[in-house]
Write a structure and sequence with these properties.
Elements lengths: L8 E4 L11 E2 L5 E2 L4 H12 L3 E5 L5 H10 L3 E3 L5 H12 L6 E5 L5 H6 L2 E4 L5 H6 L2 E2 L8 H13 L2 H11 L1
Parallel strand pairs: 1-4, 1-6, 4-5, 6-7, 7-8
Antiparallel strand pairs: 2-3
Helix pairs in contact: 1-6, 1-7
Length: about 170
């Protein structure tokens, strides 16, 4: 059985995963981020397949909350110094085991949590240490379709991608 087929929850970092890692600030201190619509569709496909999604980020941003809510992301953890604690909370809340979680990361602050989960996914732009432990490396960089690529791979290995796409298309 593939490690992909056990996955029930997909957790991910924000900066460098859902975004390209750039932090844009206006002169008034307002923070702006750019997100890929492709990643948004991927998250919706995951939900249509019965998957749970979560973001775990070391920063705090109202922009992240707004985008996560738009996409229906189930859990939002911000300002997290130790992402493993957020993972523990998710495991308890959803009654899951480590091997049932996929995590998409790109930098050293994702290393500890990635070592725990069943499916370790690195974005194309991830640092070497993350790529070295990854089970799957996306073909796209963070903020440019990496999340969609990862979700497509999971759903394809589970044999539910075509069904999710059909469900998505019937919503439009």
């Amino acid at each position: 059985m593939s490690i992909f087929t056990n996955i029930k929850l997909i957790a991910m970092d924000v900066d460098g995963v859902l975004t390209d890692g750039s932090i844009i600030m206006s002169s008034t201190g307002e923070e702006m981020k750019a997100f890929s619509v492709h990643d948004g569709v991927g998250i919706k496909l995951a939900h249509l397949s019965g998957m749970t999604t979560a973001v775990i980020t070391g920063r705090s941003s109202s922009v992240v909350v707004k985008r996560a809510k738009e996409l229906g992301i189930n859990e939002i953890y911000q300002d997290v110094a130790d992402k493993e604690l957020a993972l523990e909370d998710l495991l308890e809340k959803y009654q899951l085991k480590d091997y049932q979680v996929a995590y998409i990361g790109d930098d050293l602050n994702d290393l500890k949590v990635m070592r725990r989960v069943g499916l370790k996914i690195a974005t194309l732009n991830a640092v070497r240490e993350i790529k070295d432990i990854a089970d799957f490396i996306t073909e796209f960089e963070g903020g440019k379709g990496a999340v969609r690529d990862a979700i497509n791979a999971i759903l394809e290995k589970k044999g539910v991608l075509a069904d999710a796409i059909n469900k998505y298309c019937s919503l439009k």
